[in-house]
Specification:
With 202 residues, this protein is mainly β. The chain is built from 2 helices and 15 strands.
Length: 202
């Protein structure tokens, strides 16, 4: 309630929409490992559309100097907004080394660089940890002078993020950001512009 949908992608067409751009390679030479020491080479062929799902498959195969491949998609220059709500529904992969994520970077990243542009990580999951997904904010003046806040979504019991589809929601308000798991009433992670971590960089 209170929101008007401005964009969605249910991946129900035969081909991927033009809202997405593939990033190809391993980030080299400018940003080898994409800033996260990633071991894979990204290519289009690892992405398929199946029964209304976007499926990204990581493979153990040689590509260039890398021994693994996967896919990396962005909406840079095509979709952007300030404040609102974002929902992702996903079934995550499992296994050591897996690191699926959905995140947002400031539209001005090309002008001011990271982390000054700001970053909101809606969902990140380490494949070796099956029942925890994290969300985070990154901000600051430079990579050497930055702040990070992290919260975790925990699934109780023996249910895992890899067993079935779960939803993660970002609610981005002017002075507050909240993250929700599976439409629960209470957020699992909340931050406010009044927090000292933000005031340090304001």
């Amino acid at each position: 309630d209170g929101y008007n949908k401005v964009w969605s992608d249910e991946f129900s067409d035969a081909t991927l929409s033009s809202d997405w751009t593939f990033e190809i390679g391993d980030g080299c030479p400018a940003n080898c490992g994409w800033g996260n020491q990633e071991l894979e080479f990204y290519k289009k062929e690892n992405t398929t559309l199946q029964d209304g799902n976007l499926v990204i498959t990581a493979k153990k195969e040689n590509q260039g100097t890398r021994n693994y491949t996967s896919s990396r998609l962005i909406t840079k220059g095509k979709k952007f907004f300030t404040y609102g709500r974002v929902d992702i529904r996903a079934k995550l992969p499992k296994g050591q080394g897996m690191w699926p994520a959905l995140w947002m970077l400031g539209e001005n990243i090309s002008e001011v660089s990271w982390p000054k542009c700001g970053e909101i990580d809606i969902m990140e999951n380490r494949g070796r940890i099956s029942n925890v997904s994290s969300s985070a904010l990154h901000f600051g003046f430079s990579p050497q002078n930055k702040g990070t806040l992290v919260g975790e979504a925990l699934i109780p019991g023996k249910v895992r993020f890899q067993d079935k589809f779960h939803s993660i929601t970002l609610e981005w308000l002017k002075d507050e950001i909240n993250f929700y798991l599976n439409n629960e009433k209470d957020p699992y992670f909340s931050v406010s512009s009044e927090m000292e971590a933000f005031k340090k960089f304001s």
